[in-house]
Amino acid sequence: MKHYYHPMSRAVTTDWMLRELDAPHERCVVDYLAGDNAKPEYRAVNPMGKVPALVDGDTVVTETAAICAYLADKFIDKGLAPPLGSTARGQYYRYLFFSGTTLEPMFTVRHLGLTEYDARSVGWGDMPRCLATVESMTPARDWALGSQFTAADVVFGGTLDFAVQFGWLTDPSPKVAAYVQRIKARPAYRAAHDSSWH
Ligand SMILES: N[C@@H](CCC(=O)N[C@@H](CS)C(=O)NCC(=O)O)C(=O)O
Asked: Which of 46, 144, 147, 168 could form a disulfide with 152 if both were Cys (CB 3.0 to 4.6 A apart)?
């Protein structure tokens, strides 16, 4: 597998996931700050020119959450996804999709200072509803799905961690702050972040 990576990017999250799984792979640095992501070779991998991307044989996976979900299923024996076909998959998908479709856009909109929009029409709604949902989805102990740490934590917890770091989520509740701290204490998280430029 090839992991297209940059140390100042969301690829740190997929690197963290690869480390959680101890998954063998080749790291390919795409220096998007120098414009390497605009080169035809990389646009052939990801027409968005975004990192991360994962190439596994003929399969190209882009989007941080999709890469984490793909890896968790590929290495299902490592226990970072609930069993295929189990009802826990429903909750698992909710965490994986909520982060990209709702939380990220909401934090971006806040960052941009956009306040005049119809919250009923846009997928992310508004900040009070997002924060209430984060509060209800954040586990008071352990992980999103209970005692088993999964890719849901890498994606949901990783998004919350990003949001706190970049000032998009100010004053997280004690429960959210404690969950983020548990995430950050994981050895694989630390290894991935220590080798990035944060
Ligand atoms: N939706 C993508 C976003 C990835 C993304 O925005 N990557 C940024 C770095 S964090 C990037 O590659 N930016 C380069 C550019 O857009 O030119 C994901 O979840 O993976």
From this structure: 144
